[in-house]
Structure formats: C-alpha cells, structure tokens
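New to this. Comment on this protein:
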Amino acid sequence: MGILTPAAVRRQIAAGSPDAVYLLLGEDEVEKSALAAEFAGLVDEGLQAFNVERIHAGDFTTGDRLLDGVGSIVAAARTLPMMAPRRVVVVTQAETLVAPKRESEGATRALDQLETLLREPEPMTALVFVAASVDRRGRLFKLFQKQATLIECGVLEDLANAERWVRNRVAASGAAIDPAAARLVAQRAGVDIRRLRGDVERLMLYAMGQPQITLDDVRVVTGPAALQDDWAMTNAIEAGQPGEALRQLALVLDAGAPPEKVLGQLAWVVRAKFPAQAPRGVASAVDALFRTDMDLKRSAGDPRILLERLIVELCVSRKGSATTVPRGAR
C-alpha cells in the first residue's frame, strides 16, 4: 500500500484512523518497540485488556508451530472488538512469518492462511507486524508491500522525532532524562541517527548511578563535531573530566582512528602521566588497559563501548588518587 514514516503513523494513531495492516521494519529495535506499543492508544485504556493482543512469532520454528501460530493470529484479528471501535493485534518477531525457513505441508497451509488474511484484512482490527531484517525478494514480502503499510524505523525526519528517539532510547535502558536535556541532545546531533546513538550511549555511561540525565550532563558530554587536537582526549583524562574525554573519543573514532591507536594513546597517558599524577591509581589503570586490550583482540564487545568504559575507569583512577599538579602542555 505504501511506505510511511513513524511520524506519519503517529498522526494516524492520534486521529484514530489507522490502516488495516502494518509491517514495521528496520534495525532500530527501540524505535520499533516504542512505535508498536503506541498502537494501543487506538483503544481506550480501560478497554485495552480486552482489545489489545500481542503475539510472539519467534517460536514459530516448525511447520506445525507455524500453522498453530498463524491460526492464533487469524483468530485474534477476526475477533470482534469488545465495547470499542476496533482491536489491535501486534505480532512481534514477524520475520519468521515474512521469510519462513522451513518448508512443510504445515508451513504451506499456514502461509496460505496468512496470505488470505493479508488480502482480506479485518476492517475492525489494526494488525501490526514487527520484523527485523527480512529477505525482500520473497513472495510473502511482496504481498506485504502490496497489502500492508510499511514503516522504516530508524530514519528521523526532524528534531521532534530526534528528541522522541532520545527519550525512547534512554527509557528503554531503564534510565531517565530531563525533557530539556533530551531536546538539547537532539539539537546538537540533529537527525544523524549514528551521532544520536553515540551521544546517548556516552550520556548514559557518564551519568551512570544518577537519578536522571540532566541538562548539565548534556552540555558536558556532547558538543559540536569538531576535533580540537590529537591530545584533547588524553588531556581531559589527566584533568579528570570524563565527559570531555568521552566526547573527544567519539570525535576521534568518527574521524576514522583505529581503536588500537586510541588504546595506544590511553596506554601512553597511564605510563607517562599516572605515576606522578595518580600513583595510587596506576595498578587499577593498568588492569583496565590490559582487560580492554584482551577484549579488543577477542572481539568481546563493540570497540567504541570498550574504549568508553576504559576512559571512565581511567578518569576514576586519576580523580580518586591524584595529587594536585598543574596540567602540563604537550
């Protein structure tokens, strides 16, 4: 039927005029989950228990399970709403339906039932499929293209969407952020999803243990995307400024610096500066360096996140055991 943005779908929900079938796609799991949850707003809160149903398709891994699962989806979609104008049925992990991996008699019957539902949807039900990566060459996906409204999650249109993305991302991590702080993050990063994600991850790391992320936290951690100098990151660590060090790390990595080179710089500052400036923190700093080096070599995590963790640990070691010395020039 066409492709809509998340913002356009939210306008449909607010107006109470949804399409019959949706397919939410994209790698941004937080955005997909948040948008899928908003469809419940089509039903009054007091009636959602009777008219909002969620079905997880991730277990539909055999022909028989697929047949039973599609049967439950069809039954839920065909059920008439109770004391409400419509029902909402959300099917998560729908990639198992859009591109089933097993072929059998049961799977064939199940897909026939699903195709019938897509071609003849229930007008009193908003049917929402949420899927990760799918093979867009398959027959069923082409039917979704024809019969459903597709939504690509992870593409931001404007600053309002970017601000909403920030709030959703923080909330999904179990943290909180001031509305003004979320607005400033969006203003500084714009609609660049890659930079937004990096800024939010650094903020949550920087503000770990706080009740919520504040406007001051954002001012410290985020900033204009302009690299000041090659040693700004290590200077910030020497000064015990984790927010600035994390920001400079992001600029260094975004400029294309290899993680191994960054680790070398951090090792240098520990080796050359910590013995005089933070003697009691040398042992813990060396341990953190060694662990990060091993994790990078074993691919035991995202290099950016591993380096961010290391920087925070170095700043804690530096700040917690430092003597007061002037910050030397390079």
